[in-house]
Amino acid sequence: MDEEHGTVTLRLLGPVSAHLLGQPVMPTAPKQRQMFALLALHAGRVVTKQTLVEELWGDEPPRSFSTTLQTYVLQLRARLAAAARDRGWARRLLETKHAGYQFNAQLCDTDVAEFQRLVRSGRRAGEPAATAELLGRALALWHGPALVDVPAGRVLRAEVAALEETRLGALERRIDADLALGRHADLLGELTMLVARNPMNENFRAQLMTALYRSGRAGHALEVFREARRVLREELGVEPGPRLQRLHQAILTGDLDIESTWLAS
Predict the structure, then answer these.
(1) Which of 138, 145, 188, 190 could form a disulfide with 118 if both were Cys (CB 3.0 to 4.6 A apart)?
(2) Which residues pair with 96 in a beta bridge?
(3) Backbone angles phi, psi at 148, to 5 degrees
(4) Among 94, 42, 231, 100, which residue's Cα sits nearest to residue 86?
(5) Alpha helices for 3-45 (secondary structure H)
(6) Is residue 88 a contact partner of residue 21, using CB atoms and an 8 Å limit?
(7) Which parts of the chain are beta strand (E)?
(8) What is the pLDDT of residues 14-70, one digit of tens each?
(9) Please, how many CA atoms are within 13 Å of residue 140, restricted to the half-sphere of its CB?
């Protein structure tokens, strides 16, 4: 860590912000915001000029794209240098590499990096309490859709989609851990909302069925299955997958171990 200037605090999981020594340093111009966000997402890794061009202009870059990129970098460094009162530090943060540019990860504090670290730890945790705690902390870092107020080209759209998939996977795993800990009644409201927002997600439906069954509401659990079958048939022309089918059969037969069957699947 740079003892004099500290780190740039980058918040990307929701509305984007960047602060240095308490001062906002996030650009306001749309294309500079795109460039800044892409560099911040990849802190510690080089973002090539080709990738930046694809993000900013797609298949129709201007003839002067190379000069324009250099101008954007100079303007970003100027903002950082003004906040740090040190041009050299700004160049250490936003580094020029042979193929492109990168933010120095040692000078960045990003919520994306912390989210990914906590998700990895949660996945490696050996027991449900630790899994639920670590993944809960990871999910609490989100304050809306990632990069919600930044214009996105196709590169950023792909990055945001990947982050959202990781978030959903962490959420499903955290709920599995909570179910294993017997928190089924506490999960009913959250799972009902998740199913309503993600009607095609069979994992959320299976988790809701499990929570309902374990709360003594087998009839409601079966209704969730019937609704899943209707939606999947109407929207995709398919039947529910093996997990939902096994869970449905277990409820019909009164299998008291359905929660362990689901959580182990």
Answers:
(1) 138
(2) 101
(3) -60, -30
(4) 94
(5) 30-41
(6) no
(7) 8-11, 17-20, 23-24, 47-48, 94-96, 100-103, 108-110
(8) 999 999 988 999 999 999 999 999 999 999 999 999 999 999 999 888 889 899 999
(9) 7
